[in-house]
Amino acid sequence: MSGEKKFRTGMSGYNKEDVNEYIERILSEFDSRLKEKDDEIANLKLQLRDVRGKLDQAGTDVTAAAKDREKISMVLIQAQQKADSMLDAARTEAEAEKLRLEKLLEAHRESLIDIKRDIRDMKAHVTDMLAKYATNLDEAEGFVEAREQSNNGTGEGDRYMLA
Questions:
Q1: How many helices (H) and strands (E) in the chain?
Q2: What CA–CA distance (Å, rounded) separates 99 from 52?
């Protein structure tokens, strides 16, 4: 309200028109300010509604993000567990295969040792047999030569040779 107002005085006190004018002007200013404040309140209410909506949306987004993070965490944990399980299974299988191959290698080594022993035995046997045959041939040759010499003068030894 704009400063102090002085009214004209008339016969029966203050001038009614001036007072009524002043009251109407004050009411008009009051209504105008009230309307401004109502508009400001309405605007603030809209802003508050928008902020609450954004807050609710942010809360929903945070909740959704937390759920997504939880799901991702669970998936990662499950993937890690599956990977660990697969690695353990692969290690177990590799160890079993390694043991199987080591046993197979040992069996082949033993077989190779047996084969070498058999070859050595066969070589010794063949050598013995050849030595016996060589001895038998030498004896036969000696026998034939001895016969030949004993029959050399009679010619009968030749007949025996042909027959």
A1: 2, 2
A2: 69
Amino acid at 34: L
The torsion region of residue 88 among left (phi > 0), alpha (psi -120 to 50) and beta comes to alpha
Residue 81: strand pairing partners: none
Tell me: the pLDDT tens digits for 123-152? 999 999 999 999 999 999 999 999 989 887
Cα separation, 72 vs 5, in Å, equals 74
11-58: pLDDT as tens digits: 677 788 888 889 999 999 999 999 999 999 999 999 999 999 999 999
CA 65 → CA 32, 53, 55, 68, 71, distances in Å? 48, 18, 15, 5, 10
Question: What angle (nearest 5°) sits at the alpha carbon of residue 84, between those of residues 83 and 89?
Answer: 95
Task: Please give the Cα distance from 77 to 156 (Å, whole number).
Answer: 109
Residue type, 158: D
